[in-house]
Amino acid sequence: MIHFLSRTALGLILFLVSTSLFAQQSILERFEANTVNEQVVLTWTIKQGFTCNGIRIERSPDSLIYLEIGDIEGICGSLTEPENYTFIDKSPLSNQRNYYRLELGAVELSSVVSSEVYLTGETGHLIIPNPSQGNQMTIFYKNQRNAETALRVYDQHGHLVITQSSRGETYDLFVEGFQPGLYLFIISYSDKKEISRGKLILY
């Protein structure tokens, strides 16, 4: 037996299918998190033709439990063009990774983005872990010139054992196989101006 659907029923089915497909499409074109001067800058773009009623910005220390840290009230997005937004987390959780998501009105919960925030303090650097049992150590420092820097690591006898260069603000040291003991490191610019120095301990 062949059953025919009425125009009303067929229209309802097509509406539900199109609504389901529309709901699965993200209204965000991009969502990014970047650490700048020990603050986290969140930037995102809502696609053209999409709107929502208010935006909540949420942060988590573990990507599981989120708390609201800010909001943007009113209608968001635009029917005629993509719309860009920026939010600065001025007090992120220090010396760890911060996770962020957006609640876009009642329309969408965004994907999660994250950024690490490490405070170098008065020494001008932070070493994780230190002491280390001998695998990998990371040195965080401030590159105020945003220029190329050089890292030199010496053993306790003054022998140069590691040299690296970077334009960022971190150095990853793979120290597996190094002899236990005390090591000295110096970070400087190409003109030899010293940025920071400190000690690494392997055991």
Question: How does this structure look, described?
Answer:
With 203 residues, the protein is mainly beta. It contains one helix and 15 strands. The protein has one helix spanning 7-24; strands spanning 28-36, 39-46, 50-60, 67-78, 83-89, 96-104, 108-109, 113-117, 125-128, 136-141, 149-154, 160-166, 170-174, 181-189, 194-202. Strands 3, 4, 6, 7 and 8 form a five-stranded antiparallel β-sheet that branches. Strand 11 and strand 12 form a beta hairpin. The longest helix is centred in the N-terminal third of the chain and has 18 residues, at 7-24. The chain starts with 6 loop residues before the first helix and ends with a strand.
